[in-house]
């Protein structure tokens, strides 16, 4: 969130210091850093182009990766090149025709009390990879989890997904009543080319989350090769995401997983600048890693949500009864100091919407960030903050957003979050790369009705956060490396 001198000089956007380096060359201007044009690379692909979702971005990432590889004898930079994985798009029709392909998808969709799907986004996201496989004559064995079952739990059966999945694929999907065993093996044996068999919820087996080798081996025995298209579980070393890769080769990324890597690794590692990040949410503690990682990469950082009150408190401001993590005050101070040292323009809100209670019908009013009265709590950013944020975002070429600006579940306190969604939609129309990093931010852009215009919407909440923090994702690391092909 943003701040002004009126509230507290320490809360203002921090002027950027020139680093003097040609490679990064951030200018003394607080918001208009320079950037280098990377010339064309003699490499056809580095594992980023298969999804064909943004050729310019894919080329930019490939060029940047190639520059690391060309460094005399040096090991490629882990943050970029380790995510250049072989894709299902690299496999030829000959590689796929008649072959049994174990596909780990993320079909963990919400169901109502009548077992009706209330949001089929994840099913639709899995369709391109599955269609590519069946169109090339593969026999698809589809695996997923649903919910958090404790053993076999009927309400978490994948059966309700079959009609919608069949409709989207244009074929009748066969459903197995188990994940492994003789009956499943019979269904696999009878599966025609271009057919799809949906296994039961893989988490009905405790061995899945324990990544037990024997269970992974049984899963792998059903197929000839492996495709991971479940980004939402790629940060977990489970049997169906990591274990099976030890028994199936090739093991490659699906189009959805590849697209997530293209954007969340590619755009963040080599962004078009100025590069801004918007981070919200209720607690600093849940976003420490993301904020620290982004401070190494961004030019502008906007903070919102309940976490801002910890920053205010750390600077001696009154926050009323707003949410504060008392044990994170020193951390908040250090993050502000780190932003200044890095030359990052960090913006906190100049004003907030406060309420007399945490409820949708609470009495509310707008006050300066420095004037929250006792007994009142901040639940959203105010109109001046929205204007400040919008002005900062107008200067950007790449924006990533993770976390709401307020309690957007309550309409009265959703304006800040909705304003960010609308602004990013506007910027998308102007050619700015806009990345929605999972979780509540996705719900926000869908609520506002602008999801379809964003450059990329991540399907994984926890996986997105861990990737943005710079952590390795076991389900990605286990896949085959991309092959460099000279042209």
Keywords:
kinase, Rossmann fold, single chain, EC 2.7.2.3, alpha/beta, 15 strands, Phosphoglycerate_kinase, six-stranded parallel sheet, magnesium
Provide the CATH superfamily of the largest domain: Phosphoglycerate kinase, N-terminal domain
How many strands?
15
Number of alpha- plus pi-helical segments: 17
CATH A-level architecture of the largest domain: 3-Layer(aba) Sandwich
What's the structural domain tally? 2
Shape: elongated
Query: Which fold does the CATH topology of the largest domain refer to?
Result: Rossmann fold
Strand content: 5-15%
Mean pLDDT: 83
Helical content band: 25-40%
Alpha-carbon Rg, integer: 24 Å
User: Could you give a short account of the major beta sheet?
Assistant: 6 strands, parallel
Low-confidence stretches are 1-82
What is the rounded distance between the termini?
47 Å
Keywords: ATP-binding, Kinase, Magnesium, Nucleotide-binding, Transferase
Cofactor: Mg(2+)
Protein name: Phosphoglycerate kinase
Catalytic activity: (2R)-3-phosphoglycerate + ATP = (2R)-3-phospho-glyceroyl phosphate + ADP
